[in-house]
Amino acid sequence: MPRIEENARDENFWHTIAQRYDLEHGPINLENGYFGRMTRSVAQDYQHQIDFINRINSVHVRQQFDDTQSTEIRNRLADLLEVDHASIALTRCASDALQSLIGNYNGLQPGDQLLICDLEYPSVEYAMRWVARQRGLEIIEITHSHPATHESLIAGYREAFERHPRIKLMTLTHVTHRTGLVLPVQAIVQLAKEHGVDVVLDGAHALGQIDFDLQAMGVAFAGYNLHKWIGAPLTLGFMYIDPKRLSSIDPDMGNQRLPEPDVRNRAPYGTVNIPAWLTLPKVLQEHIELGGSAVKGARLNYLRNLWVSEARQLPGIEVLTPDDPRLHCAITSFRFTHLDDQQPMVERLLNDYNLFTVARSGSACGSCIRITVGFATTLEDINQLIKALRELSCNASA
């Protein structure tokens, strides 16, 4: 761990990493949470695969990709996660995986309850509410206290389970897209099991920046993105189902393209972005050679802490994401306390300081500005953000 932390501060090393990315001239991007950049070599490989598939068309796809290459790619991904090869199904994104898991979970009866919280991603919340309407279920929604602590997050779920004994299924966001809060997944999943509640884990923002053990966390159902912190082309994600729990999820829309039991029948069926999937081995190779999630996460947290430590000292600015290292990652949100709507300040950051950020709302802590550093973020970028916050804070308090 000391070597990883030392590496996170090695600007010469990370300068060489930043040089792997082609950057368009324009605003400083502090909204790296939407999707990640591909390195130059990955983008070149992706273009090569596009050209190849375009030339050869269905001959290669029918003869090799459908029968062998897609399976080999899926197995490499499972090896990265150290899970059973039979537990992975490829999807377009985490949302596709999560919606299929929620919609096809077959352990619900009319009158059962579903649990969500104020931190869910919209497509996940929509899916839970849709299932509730379709099957005569009740939605229980909890709001996490602010500021959150490790203990308060666990206590919030414990209270919900005790007050609502008919909860059978819940969604849990590993990293919330709104504030970057990292939830204590393993403790909450264990608590849910003790109360007979199944968990569908939204890992969209976690993979590639948080070093976790999926099996140790006790998760049976999860959805992930590969185009955020892993660095794959857009339209790549996957579904995870513990093979012992496969029977709890029905085939998606009655999908029977493969003999049962097969986890791939649980994913939406259609033509995938084949060139993108053929690029994934290159992506995984680069991810592993860099040091994986541990090295990536240490660098991102280092950059995050540089600006957060300054922002916490400024009047009129509230940082919403805790500093407990168990509860934060690259994504952190703040707000100017004199404003309810943070969008005007997002525009000020862009127009006056050339900083591209994004406003987020929906959680109980209110409207906020999301800052997400990336692998090409420099110390100069962080200093520009600190300068902007100091000046805007002074103007707000004047």
TrEMBL record:
Listed Gene3D superfamilies: Aspartate Aminotransferase, domain 1, Type I PLP-dependent aspartate aminotransferase-like (Major domain)
InterPro entries: Aminotrans_V_dom (IPR000192), PyrdxlP-dep_Trfase (IPR015424), PyrdxlP-dep_Trfase_major (IPR015421), PyrdxlP-dep_Trfase_small (IPR015422)
This protein's UniProt keywords: Aminotransferase, Lyase, Pyridoxal phosphate, Transferase
Pfam families: Aminotran_5
GO-annotated molecular function: lyase activity; transaminase activity
Coiled-coil ranges per UniProt: none
Domain Aminotransferase class V: 54-385
Name this polypeptide is given: Class V aminotransferase
